[in-house]
Amino acid sequence: MDHSGDDLPLDRFLDREEGWLRFNQRVLELAEDTSIPLLERVRFLAIFSSNLDEFFMVRVAGLKRRLATGVAVASPSGHHPRDLLSRISKVTRELMLRHARCFDESVAPALAEAGIRIVRWAELEDTDRRRMRRFFTRSVYPVLTPFTVDPAHPFPYISGRSLNLAVTVRDPRTARRMFARVKVPSVLPRFIELHDHRFVPVEDVIAEHLPELFEGMEVEAHHAFRVTRNADLEVDEDETDDLVQSLENELLRRRFGPLVRLEVEPTISPEVLDILSNELGAEPEEIYRVPGPLNLAGLSQIADIDRPELTFPPMVPIEPRPLTGDDLYAAFRAGEVLVHHPYESFAATTERFLEMAATDPDVVAIKQTLYRTSGDSPIVDSLIEAARSGKEVVALVEIKARFDEQNNIQWARKLEEAGCHVVYGVVGLKTHCKLALVVRQEDDGSLRRYCHVGTGNYNPRTARAYEDFGLFSADPEVGADLTDLFNHLTGFSRKRDYRRLLVAPTGLRDDLVRLIRNEIEQHAQGAPARIRVKVNSLVDEEMIDAFYAASRAGVPIDLWVRGSCVLRPGVPGLSENIRVRSVLGRYLEHSRVFVFENGGRPEVWIGSADLMPRNLDRRVEAMIRVVEPDHVSRLVGLMDLAMSDDTSAWRMAADGSWTRATRDDAGEPLLDLQNTLRGDRHLRVVDV
């Protein structure tokens, strides 16, 4: 059979950007779901807004840059970037208005019924206004800086994602009108709290006191607005002698990136909008009129209110049974241990493993990749402690991790100061794999390697909210693989073949295509054949064509995709054997799992790679084969549970639309996947 894709329909790919927007729409649908605890709905509204900011800062900015530089090639779906930007604008406007309606008509009234109110200045009573005036004088006025625009004062720079007030003032002596801008300082909370869980938008407090900023002038009007700018970084690693310094310079430049979106409230006057448009260089299609308040990413402040009855019931991560003893090394020597976060404790497994290695006098070396973590992480502290105690510590820090660049630079320097060998990855690639290698001298004098390969970052904060897997192993083959890979990352090597790892960019793409083609061959021979994949994004054209080829050959394929998916499932003659599901909920589904039936002897892989060109071609990724029969069964069972028609999930249609299924034909609730996986249910008196 021809697997080249030459005989496949030209419209077999959906738009990646629209696919991502449909993912964010699913986040919004969670906020609209009145069966979800109220403060969790508030959090989903905040996540939607934050997600959309990043979409404009990166994806829309990238399309605009392609147009500006003349690199206006069509997208995989065949759309020219200009047409695609127009389509994106239409969809985003619809979603932003839907988001505002959800807040205004559903969430805000429900909050008020629960005793949590977001009130505008006009709704405040005199006592509250006096309280807000005292707060303004004490905590707001000292950090405000009004900028007037006139021949002596050019239009000020408007930083990305900042909330601002456009103010029109009039000089009563000369009758001259002037424009001014007042930035809402980022040090202020998004909402100013009164008592009894009542909150006032910070811009309302500032707006009421504008006469104090423009004393002697008449404040005629004020309008809130917000700018989103291009925040993508461009560093030519081949042309720099100091990657860290170049990146820091680029981070400074990011603040001045070109505008990609101007958000204004519908009440803005035409005159003020003209001033903003002209001074900021905003084209009409870049202007978004959105019912206030703007910047609802700040709703995370409301979501954090201590009202347990309005949030998901607490979940206590359990400790995996093999690791309940005192000797983790003995547990790993007895057999590999698969852990599933956040259901199983990150602190009692991954953190404990590295803390133990740092203080163990028999450990001689620790090697670790760090993509995103927190500067106050116990893992960073463990690496510092290990280095200070004389151990050989190598930390491979990815300082190009988007939006974490500055944080990563800071704690990378902290590691260097402690004596760690800090490596900033491979030129031209991002190091995205999740690996830890501990070398220990055993009682018999030999050296043994203890390994961890994960699907998620070594970040204790996100480990409480991100769903991920980690595999602990003392298998000599895994130890040899990690040693080889670290040597590749810190030195010079073009090693391609490993024992139990698949590694990008040297071989992962070809290996995955080989595994897919093996399923086609198994099916042709009458042997059991099936493909099950769980990823965050599926946008790589070659991989999608490989799935299409397998489907056309009769191989059933189940794809569990959290985010953007540009494959069209269920198309006759192309993908009728492919089903696509998406699960969103309390935890962010983040793990990557690949299951190939292999004639009844399943091959199961977990790791860091999504099916995107950047992951397969421009990042260092690692997938490890899971070999313990119990672990294989566990992962196969998880995939089957997620894809079951009895499980609540979004189901994707051939046109790219998603339909959420929460009840069966009889009206009974479908299974909640994440709640089913909780291991702490036996700890609760009431089953939830």
From TrEMBL:
**Per its Swiss-Prot or TrEMBL entry, what cofactor is needed?**
Mg(2+)
* UniProt function note: Catalyzes the reversible transfer of the terminal phosphate of ATP to form a long-chain polyphosphate (polyP).
Q: Which organism is it from?
A: Nocardiopsis mangrovi
UniProt keyword terms in alphabetical order: ATP-binding, Kinase, Magnesium, Metal-binding, Nucleotide-binding, Phosphoprotein, Transferase
HAMAP family per the UniProt record, alphabetical: Polyphosphate_kinase
Q: Where does Mg(2+) bind?
A: 372, 402
Q: How is it modified after translation?
A: An intermediate of this reaction is the autophosphorylated ppk in which a phosphate is covalently linked to a histidine residue through a N-P bond.
| Family per record | Belongs to the polyphosphate kinase 1 (PPK1) family.
Cite the EC number.
2.7.4.1
> Where ATP is bound, by residue?
51, 466, 562, 590
Active-site residues?
432 (phosphohistidine intermediate)
Spell out the coiled coil positions from the record: none
Catalysed reactions, as listed in the record: [phosphate](n) + ATP = [phosphate](n+1) + ADP
Q: Which GO terms describe its molecular function?
A: polyphosphate kinase activity
Top EC class per UniProt? transferase
NCBIfam families reported for this sequence: poly_P_kin, PRK05443.1-1, PRK05443.1-2, PRK05443.2-2, PRK05443.2-3
- This protein is called what? Polyphosphate kinase
Superkingdom as given in the UniProt entry: Bacteria
Q: Where is the PLD phosphodiesterase domain?
A: 585-615
